[in-house]
Design goal:
By secondary structure, the chain is of the alpha/beta class. The strands form four sheets. It has a seven-stranded parallel β-sheet, with helices on both faces.
């Protein structure tokens, strides 16, 4: 299926594009909003229920921006969603909202089913009803951009790359719920004619990422001279992309992508977990030498591997490169240096705020659960990629 292309020139001409973005207070969603508001013409409604990993402070500089609105709303609340759609009248829905931490999906799979599957269903139902009432011209410009992950393809093995045609073979509760959401989105396209586009991206890193993921956790632990826990032998490989390169690709897909298509986004930058941690240690040692003049590599602590840990992911990004003349602006070295600098400058600000916020929300949530269901936060101190 070739899909329908809307060129940027005709799509944008004379229009202020209205983007309803779910999960826009999170890591990748907030990066998308920053890029959109730096360009014209975009008007943003950010819908986010502000879970432990998201914060309105990530977009504090836009609070007085007339092109930015925020609603603290759960996408499972269809009544509130219908009101927001009716009042805002979006041109595009960009769906980031999801639970994404693999370790948490192993201990609290129900949260991932509710958010990633049921939440996506709720959003699709609302968007489909809204779309059906649009005029013929408005329907030509509307689309639903669903942001997914390369983890839906499963374990790649030691060679080869994921293509857009690769079968879905998820191995964790997280990736299984994301694959399920992909299938729902495609079903709403084939069955109801909702104009959708799906993207699968490799591992993101950069500013404003919650410090339970590998890179920000290792940076903050290394700065505090704490242990650096690494799963297994640290040999698992991921394809890494700087978050702004990802959201730059998303903007091109939003403006010029073909309806009904899937696009894989990656930077062709494969590194093992141990290589990542050693790079972080060496860079921080060069900036802030350890008080005992030892290498921070000595802080690495190998811990028991997590269940079902996929060995390798890698994206073939030929389609997005050729269709949109896109390529990443940051090498892994330059992106990692920028990321370390940002976390060093914001360790006592944004990082402290979101960690304190996360602890408060976890305590509150646990009090609402039975003792046998209380989530153990042990894994939040371990790397997760």
């Amino acid at each position: 299926m070739l899909g329908r292309r809307i060129e940027s020139s005709s799509y944008c001409k004379g229009k202020q594009l209205k983007l309803l973005i779910t999960g826009g207070a999170g890591f990748i969603g907030s990066s998308m909003i920053r890029q959109c508001l730096a360009r014209m013409p975009y008007h943003i409604l950010n819908i986010d229920k502000l879970t432990y990993a998201s914060s309105s402070k990530s977009l504090k500089e836009f609070e007085s921006n007339l092109n930015y609105q925020f609603s603290c709303t759960d996408i499972n609340d269809q009544r509130s969603l219908r009101t927001l759609f009716t009042n805002f009248k979006p041109t595009v829905v960009v769906h980031f909202a999801a639970e994404t931490h693999v370790d948490r999906s192993i201990t609290r799979a129900s949260d991932f089913v509710q958010s990633n599957i049921v939440g996506t269903f709720s959003l699709l139902e609302t968007a489909s009803a809204y779309f059906s009432d649009l005029s013929a011209e408005e329907k030509q410009h509307f689309r639903f951009l669903h942001i997914s992950t390369d983890e839906v393809y499963g374990d790649l093995g030691s060679d080869g790359y994921f293509l857009e045609t690769s079968p879905l073979a998820p191995n964790s509760p997280y990736s299984a719920t994301k694959a399920s959401s992909d299938l729902l989105v495609n079903a709403w396209y084939r069955t109801y004619g909702l104009p959708i586009i799906i993207t699968h991206c490799s591992n993101n890193y950069g500013p404003y990422q919650f410090p339970e993921k590998l890179i920000p956790l290792m940076i903050l632990n290394a700065l505090e001279n704490k242990a650096l826990p690494v799963y297994g032998k640290g040999l698992n490989i991921r394809d890494w992309i700087y978050v702004e390169d990802h959201t730059n690709a998303l903007l091109r897909i939003l403006e010029r992508g073909r309806i009904g298509q899937t696009y894989n986004i990656g930077a062709n930058s494969e590194h093992s977990n141990l290589e990542i941690v050693y790079n972080i240690c060496d860079l921080i040692d060069s900036l802030v030498p350890h008080p005992e003049q030892i290498s921070r590599r000595s802080l690495v602590k190998f811990v028991q591997d997590r269940p079902g840990h996929d060995f390798r992911y890698a994206i073939d990004n030929t389609k997005v490169r050729t269709e949109f003349d896109w390529q990443p602006n940051e090498s892994f070295s330059s992106g990692l240096a920028k990321t370390i600098k940002w976390y060093m400058e914001n360790a006592d600000g944004w990082c402290r705020h979101i960690l304190d916020q996360s602890q408060s929300k976890t305590i509150f949530k646990n009090r609402e659960m039975k003792d046998s269901d209380v989530y153990s936060n042990e894994h939040s101190h371990e790397q997760t990629q």
